[in-house]
Amino acid sequence: MKKAAFIVKDHKTYPHAEEAWYKFYGKKVGAVLFIVYPKGDPNNVVETLEEVVDHSKWEEIVWVKTWSNFRPRALKVKRKKNIFLDYYLRYVEYFYNRLDTLMINKIAKKYKDIDLVFSGHKNTQEHLAAKLEPKELFLLDSGNFNNKIGRSGYIDYSNGRKYKRSRKGKLLFYLTGLKIYDRKKTKIFTIYADAIKTKHDTVKNNQEYKKLLLSKKKVGDEVLFISSPVYKLAKGVQLTRFIEYLRKTFEALDVDPLKVIYIPNPIRENKSDVIKITEALGCSYDDRSIPVEIKITKYKKLPRLIISPYSTALLNIKVILLDKIPICCAWHPEFKYFKHIAKLRNTLLDVEENGIKFLVVKDAPKFFDVNANQYKGSPLFSNFTDWNQQYTK
User: Fold this and answer.
1) What is the pLDDT of residues 122-169, one digit of tens each?
2) pTM of structure
3) Residue closest to 244 by CA, chosen among 359, 366, 387
4) Could you tell me the end-to-end alpha-carbon distance of the chain, in angstroms, rounded to an integer?
5) Which of 100, 118, 188, 235 is 20 to 30 Å from 260 by CA-CA measure?
6) Contacts of 219 (CB under 8 A, 6+ apart)
7) What is the mean pLDDT of the chain?
């Protein structure tokens, strides 16, 4: 009997496994989902995946708890400043990887009769994929990874072949026994299949499964606002001004705030700020730590409108929604001073004819208090980090 394994690490990679399941397999019998996550679960992988995983697709779900790949943010900062701590933690990680390879070898032996494997590219995931010895292996990737293609023409992740060419990498593979499936036989399943230059066989992920789910839904009367929290990213931007900017945006679009679901940034915004924003405007909010595209597929009805100041999520949503509902980029006049936002705007303009519209919120309160006359002709700020450095001088 034909079997397929799908290896993911969190709620961000799981949707690609569903897309691969729909395109290449499409049945529950023989479908095994492996979830490989670090001990201690620092990113609440278990909790968030329990909200996302569709059990009707998988004959078996195997949770693989690893010792490696656990790096708390505070520790990352400390090791950058302390070379001895960095070396110590590096060799501890080698030891953890060795423990993981031994554990994964036992798991792979049990599930070895596999035809297809779809995997992420963390070292532990690739090791599991290789040890399953599939007839075909696809790496699941949602990013444009041209910069990860090595001179050989094959994908060259920092935990892959690149390590083998370095002293640190040779030691990692020697001590741990980590395996990688033959790169010449490794294929890629990605939304950027037509944009990368590689010797890998690539298949484009057109988000067909999400499109199918959304095609069956009716449009409701709610509105989604996907936050780009400028007040958290740029120094000097007050939360009260951000709230007023939202109010002006809703007025310009004739949107009742009571019908708005506020989607906070899962990394930048904390719950207390989200509550202040939504209470001031009368909105509800959805702060689940899952991609907004997945949230939309799980709502009973589609929103009638999606709004965001600027967000790459708009492009992803546009792909799966086609022309079913309008998408609006609520443009603050002072965004024009920032190169990284202007670049995104140009990208969005390329698809404006197909459903993404721009609204310049003319009455919006100032965020940055830039004097337009004095600034005229000066170079753009590269990003908010550049602005923050200027602001603190």
Assistant:
1) 888 989 999 999 999 999 876 666 667 777 787 765 444 444 445 555
2) 0.79
3) 366
4) 67
5) 235
6) 301, 302, 303, 304, 324, 325
7) 84
- Same domain for 191 and 262? no
> Which sign does the torsion angle of CA 252, 328, 220, 243 carry?
negative
CATH assignment at residue 218: 3.40.50
Q: What is the pLDDT of residues 281-302, one digit of tens each?
A: 999 999 988 888 889 988 999 9
**Cβ atoms of residues 309 and 335 within 8 Å:** yes
Q: Who's near 137: CB < 8 A, 6+ residues apart? A: 116, 117, 118, 119, 129, 130, 181, 185, 186, 187
Query: What are the CA-CA distances from residue 101 to residues 110, 174, 201 (Å)?
Result: 14, 12, 28
Q: Rg of the chain's alpha carbons, rounded to an integer?
A: 23
Q: Would you say 55 and 84 are in contact if contact means Cβ atoms under 8 Å apart?
A: no
Angstrom distance (rounded) from CA 310 to CA 348: 9
Q: Cite the DSSP H helix spans in the chain.
A: 14-20, 45-52, 73-81, 83-110, 123-131, 161-164, 167-176, 208-215, 230-233, 239-252, 271-281, 292-298, 313-321, 339-350, 372-375, 384-391
Q: Which domain holds residue 377?
A: 213-391
Distance CA 159, CA 356 (A): 38
Q: Are 100 and 221 part of one and the same domain?
A: no
Separation CA 12–CA 291 (nearest Å): 7
Question: What is the reported pLDDT for 147?
Answer: 67
Binned at pLDDT 50, 70 and 90, residue 179 comes out as confident
pLDDT at position 143: 65
What's the average model confidence in pLDDT over 195-208? 84
Task: Of 234, 188, 172, 177, give the one whose Cα is nearest residue 368.
Answer: 234
Task: Return d(Cα 230, Cα 242) in angstroms, integer.
Answer: 8
Q: For position 104, what pLDDT does the model report?
A: 95
Which tokens sit at 334? 């002072």
In this structure, the chain runs to a length of: 393
Give residue 365's pLDDT.
93
CA-CA distance, 9 to 139, in Å (whole number)? 13
Structural domain ending residue among the three candidates 206, 230, 261: 206
Counted domains in the chain:
2
In 120-198, beta strands by DSSP E:
136-141, 186-190
